[in-house]
TrEMBL record:
Protein name, entry field: Uncharacterized protein
UniProt family annotation: Belongs to the glycosyltransferase 20 family.
A UniProt-annotated Pfam family: Glyco_transf_20
GO annotation (BP), single: trehalose biosynthetic process
MF-aspect GO terms: alpha,alpha-trehalose-phosphate synthase (UDP-forming) activity
Top-level taxon of the source organism: Bacteria
InterPro entries membership: Glyco_trans_20 (IPR001830)
Species, as recorded: Gemmata massiliana
Annotated spans, Disordered: 497-519
Length: 539
């Protein structure tokens, strides 16, 4: 039996017993905002909310998040609570209000100017600012307070998301040792040499070791985390069980590759996707030419300039393709308060303009850059109608665009061009795997997406769809709940179908394999060469 929403509901009942599920994530799954004087709601861009919302819809509970929309307060009660999804509520969103100073130091500062570049291999220099750090600490305390209020009076499993809340698990355990805490780290974990330059490394690690369970996307990330803890802290590492023992607390560290809900593709496409595709083509003057699409937040880890350079190279290598396709980049604005992100938007605009100037004609522009927020209804139409989708992240924990694209292709057509430095590349070897730093290889990947035979597309797409169907978001959540649920007191015994093991054991834990070490070395070497190249080119 595969993993479905219903099976996850069953596992949640079995494993949680009477305990309340409280998810903590900085980003809220639904944002209310004013548009033309009216309140509307949108789903934010980004993998975390895409992945977690179906889980919450299956399990119920409370999602504690920063209330970031300008109309958020208008729809919540006095404690910041509102039922979601807004059109058919079945769980609670508890909004936490932050000041601009809080956002500056905690979200833009420590989370996204320090931890984000620290954890990704992209040679962006992390900012270590003590004032940001103080705010990060304070905001983690603010969230701890909100969680403790939500957990009052009964057992609870608190499921913390991401690098915004490294200190939260320890704060929760100190206040309520009976709470069961799990954390999923949605971005990569670097090697110890890199992480330990952070002045607050020990405090961050200690905070995370307040968890009963700590999840990463890959075994490689888990190995890096354990090596980092081993170097930095007094503790006992049990390599057999993959657990860290410290001050009477045991933290299990396991890989859980995140995924998507494959059924959502059909929901977003509906029966009228072809009409919507026609309207979209008309709006952006795409004619009936084949499309290659990219869908990302505009973030320097995503390799957007690199893929534009590949489009340019493709047109130089294959001038016969001029006028024959469009490259459509959906670039949701992201973290624009941070200079590096603003600079990147300018760089992408300038590159698109340059390529269009050089290769375009009056009635054909090769690059269409859509630099605004698009809802899943539009994005899935693009996935479904495209010849190919390119994901060229320089480094990415997983990348759910790759998996979403696959779920949209019930026609078993379409080519996925995928960076080998994403977590998704380990699960989707049938994609055209490329090194995003290698412009020649990327151009060839784009060429393949326009020329691959139908039968080859079908062969690859069928296997990728099978993989994502089996390893869907319900499996991810079910495995996590099964693992951490062992620590929830007094689970109510509800039988799970006998033929099916309750918990699929995660892959055996091992030290990094020779291949993983080679790949790490390869990443380091490639990124070093690129950094040298960019520096010598004055970029
Ligand atoms: O994957 C890392 C992450 O920070 C997620 O939390 C989120 O889905 C995505 O990037 C978007 O980031 P933000 O919430 O900062 O817009």
């Amino acid at each position: 039996m595969g993993w479905s929403k219903e099976r996850l509901e069953e596992v949640a009942r079995t494993r949680l017993g009477g305990a309340k599920l409280i998810v903590v994530a900085n980003r809220e799954p639904y944002i209310h905002r004013y548009k033309n004087g009216e309140v509307e709601w949108i789903r934010p861009a980004g993998g975390l909310t895409t992945a977690l919302d179906p889980v919450m819809q299956a399990c119920g509970g409370v999602w504690v998040a920063h209330g970031s929309g300008d109309a958020d307060r208008a729809v919540t009660d006095a404690s910041g609570r509102v039922g979601v999804p807004p059109d058919d509520p079945n769980y609670v969103l508890r909004r936490v209000w932050l000041s601009k100073d809080d956002e500056e130091g905690y979200y833009y500062g420590t989370a996204n100017s320090m931890l984000w570049p620290l954890c990704h291999q992209v040679f962006a220099r992390p900012v270590f600012d003590p004032k940001h750090w103080e705010t990060y600490r304070r905001v983690n305390e603010t969230f701890a307070q909100a969680v403790l209020e939500e957990a009052e009076g009964g057992p609870a499993l608190v499921f913390v998301q991401d690098y915004h809340f490294a200190l939260l698990p320890r704060l929760l355990k100190a206040a309520r040792p009976d709470l069961v805490t799990a954390q999923f780290w949605h971005i990569p974990w670097p090697g110890p040499e890199k992480f330990l330059v952070c002045p607050w490394a020990k405090e961050l690690l200690d905070g995370m070791l307040g968890n009963d369970l700590l999840g990463f996307h890959t075994q490689h990330d888990c190995n890096n985390f354990l090596d980092t803890v081993d170097r930095a802290l007094e503790c006992r590492i049990d390599r057999e069980r993959f657990a860290v023992q410290r001050a009477g607390q045991s933290t299990t560290v396991r890989p859980f590759p995140i995924s998507v809900d494959p059924a959502l593709a059909q929901e977003y496409l509906g029966n009228d996707w072809e009409d919507r595709a026609t309207a979209l083509r008309k709006k952006h003057r795409l004619g009936d030419r084949p499309l290659i699409v990219g869908v990302d937040r505009v973030d320097y880890t995503k390799g957007i300039p690199e893929r534009l350079q590949a489009v340019d190279r493709l047109l130089h290598k294959h001038p016969e393709l001029k006028g024959q396709f469009h490259f459509v980049q959906v670039g949701a604005p992201s973290r624009t308060h941070i200079p590096a992100y603003r600079d990147l938007t300018e760089e992408v605009n300038a590159l698109a303009e340059k390529i269009n100037w050089e290769h375009g004609t009056e009635d054909w522009q090769p690059v269409v850059f859509l630099n605004e927020h698009h809802g899943p209804e539009d994005i899935f139409v693009l996935y479904r109608t495209a010849a190919g989708c390119i994901v060229s992240s320089l480094h990415d924990g997983m990348n759910l665009v790759a998996k979403e694209f696959v779920t949209a292709r019930d026609d078993e057509r379409g080519v996925l061009v995928l960076s080998q430095f994403t977590g998704a590349a380990r699960e989707l070897p049938d994609a055209v795997l490329v090194n995003p730093f290698d412009v020649e290889e990327m151009a060839d990947g784009l060429h393949a997406s326009l020329t691959m035979s139908g039968s080859e597309q079908e062969r690859r797409m069928r296997r990728m769809r099978g993989q994502v169907d089996d390893h869907n978001i319900y499996r991810w959540a079910g495995m996590l709940l099964s693992e951490v649920g062992k620590r929830v007191p007094d689970p109510v015994s509800v039988s799970v179908p006998a033929a099916e093991p309750e918990v699929e054991e995660p892959e055996p834990i091992a030290a990094p394999t020779a291949q993983e070490r080679r790949q790490e070395h390869h990443i380091a070497r490639e990124t070093y060469l690129t950094a040298m190249y960019l520096a010598s080119a004055g970029v």
